[in-house]
Amino acid sequence: MERICSIIEDETQKSWSLFRASNQVIYTGGINKMTESIIQQKSCSSCQQTQPVSSFSNNIRQKDGKDTFCKKCQSEYHNQWKANNSNAVKQIAANRRNRLKIKRLCLHCSVNPAQKFKSCCERCSKKQAVRRKTYRIEQTQKGFCASCLKTPYLVNTVKSFPLCETCYFKQKARRNLGNGLFWQQIKAKLEQQNYLCPYTGEKLILGVNDSLDHIKPINHFPELKNDIENIEWTTRAINEMKRDRTPEQFLSFIQHILNYKSKLGIKWNNSSCLPKESLSITVSV
Ligand SMILES: [Zn+2]
Ligand SMILES: [Zn+2]
Ligand SMILES: [Zn+2]
């Protein structure tokens, strides 16, 4: 034990004198935790700044076990190289992917076997899910869309999963037309309608009262399910009332109610469910 201590002392002494002589780390005794904790600084050969050794990555090829560039310079150098050699970067990534796919290994850690029908192992996919969830929460707290995480979200969309305008349209298109790619067409429809419900004249507000209606109900016209021409924006209340009726059936259904009520002699000119600007319904006998 005494001998080991004296060796460490000798080594430490040696490295200190070298350090003082050159003001740089030229320690040649390999990675020795004790001496490393004493020698705490090293000069970067790129930015020429003397920095703590913790600012340098490990590199077993170097005599002192640390890179010659500091971490910041190293990453700048790598980013620069990647920017200048984008094709090579793609090729390297593709080669790696192919190699791992053949061996059926995880594309992330390249160590564990990949799951069935997935490209990564169970551990990595769990980690990734946690990371994605945390990032989503962070971004939504900052006011960004929970789907694309980039654009500010619409105030009125669901609080647990707020969406930006584009993602909102994409979700609507996916749900009603079976494909999110129709989002621009349904947006154009809404603009064509001037953001008004064709039945009540109410203003349609995204996330509040908007609803996409299949003009000809898909229960009776299943072939028109994904037909963009069969789509119209209405209020949610109207869509719920219309259900699987065609516009003609829906209007005659309302007419029927009005006729019946008027037969009973009921008059009204006020409807609290409609906004002030829309016409009030007056029924007279
Ligand atoms: Zn540096
Ligand atoms: Zn993995
Ligand atoms: Zn979005």
Mind sketching the topology for me?
Elements: H1 2-22, H2 33-38, E1 41-43, E2 50-52, H3 71-84, H4 86-103, H5 122-141, H6 165-177, H7 183-192, E3 210-214, E4 231-235, H8 236-242, H9 247-263
Antiparallel strand pairs: 1-2, 3-4
Helix pairs in contact: 6-7
Structure commentary:
This protein is mainly α and 285 residues long. Among the domains are: 91-141, no CATH class; 182-278, no CATH class. It contains 9 helices and 4 strands. The protein has helices spanning 2-22, 33-38, 71-84, 86-103, 122-141, 165-177, 183-192, 236-242, 247-263; strands at 41-43, 50-52, 210-214, 231-235. The strands form 2 sheets. Strands 1-2 form a two-stranded antiparallel ribbon. Strands 3-4 form a two-stranded antiparallel sheet. A hairpin with a 6-residue loop joins strand 1 (41-43) and strand 2. It is elongated and about 100 Å long. Residues 4-8, 15-29 and 276-285 have low confidence and may be disordered.
